[in-house]
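Budget justification note: compute hours in this period were largely spent on complex prediction jobs such as the one shown. Inputs:
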Amino acid sequence: MEAAGRAQAARGRVPRIDPYGFERPEDFDYAAYEEFFSAYLAILTRRAIKWSRLLKGGGAVQRSMTVKRYIRKGIPLEHRARVWMGVSGAQARMDRNPGYYQRLLQGERSASLEEAIRTDMNRTFPDNVRFRKDAEPCLQGPLYNVLLAYGHHNHGVGYCQGMNFIAGYLILVTKSEEEAFWLLDALVGRILPADYYSPSMLGLKTDQEVLGELVRTKLPAVAALMDSHGVLWTLVASRWFICLFVDVLPVETVLRVWDCLFSEGSKIIFRVALTLLKHHQASILEATSVPDLCEKFKEITRGRFVTECHSFMQALSRFQSC
Amino acid sequence: MNPRKKVDLKLIIIGALGVGKTSLLHQYVHKTFYEDYQTTLGASILSKIIILDDTTLKLQIWDTGGQERFRSMVSTFYKGSDGCVLAFDVTDLESFEALETWRGDVLAKTIPMEQSYPMVVLGNKIDLADRQVPQEVAQGWCKEKDIPYFEVSAKNDINVVQAFEMLASRALSRLSGRVQSLLNSNVSLYFLSVLTRRGGYSLGGSAGAGS
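Corresponding output:
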């Protein structure tokens, strides 16, 4: 009874829509979240003071050991766009190419590209109030522009589904089309392996195989179970890789993962995947069928372990040494 | 008397982008409809248990999605399926014209059997006004291929259950037919038991692998 009362009270205090505009799911655990967040708030405040000191005086954020260490502990939201732009090299490219983004949008448009992007407009974050077609202002416009510009910029890739979710997050964080474009360019063009989103998707397929091999080495029991059911890693992991954990992990956790992704590169994706699998190994091994396994793989992306993003990122750092 | 038989069936739903595959599936499995679902990337599985002709059927329905470039990844999931929903949008002519390719794709990936591979065609979004594919045209195409055709609306829950149950029933008779023909040909009981126990989950090929 007391627990129910606490949950009710927490429901009253924690907004139903998160700071990024996403509606919290029906089964959201408000009490657990409030407990986590009050502790996390203290960490955020401490980090914010340190970051403000580090970034004092403006200028581009340069890569350094200190910056890397700071980033692992999380970038406060108010500095996130600037730090991502700095460490990924996006800022430098944007500065070297003034007006480039606008020119991409003014040039001749490819009808097939536009149609492909348009198909996904209402299907990108229907659970986010800022992306709804009746939102004011509506982020579908900026999202459309960023994807269209990118398709014109990188003909080899054009538009690949999944990029809509990534660009959407970039827009939410930067609140700037042009910065979102250059960050997307940093991710697709340099940080991720080649051919992740191009029509052959060879880079993506390779990474899925690599994950399979890593699991074979580090978590042989899980690998054996997957083999015995003939489950391809594609079924489980394609979303993880294509969407870089957007809509897989909680928003705050995705952003913390991306902090490291922009600063340390695509190996972070494997670390996240392996950390999830390792932490939930016992539960995964209980699965007796393919649908069971699918359910397990959904479960491991929910709950306390991933919601508590700070300790999750610490677990990630620990994993690399084992 | 005859204890109720239990059979697992693996069904897949395929078709062009945005025809409403996820909506149809959610309407069938959860009796819910939303205007906009998130883009489906890769595949996800929904399960539903139904009773048909004194048999308990556990349906595992694989929702697939994504652009052309995802096709080679997604089509690996066709293997070992017991039946397929081919979906198009009656307000989108291209999605209808693409049925031929989708059908070819799925037939190429499933193992040819003595009985034909069960399929149903669903023309979705009949609740919308701007129709581009006349019923007779779709009906004609399906008749030629000997595939049952259903005009459906995921939004208004029209014909959705009927279509899925028709597919399930055809998949079930095909499976029973295979069991029967094995019995007739006196193949060892071992294989029979493998067939009846088989999950329909096997992606890797051999039926009942690892069980």
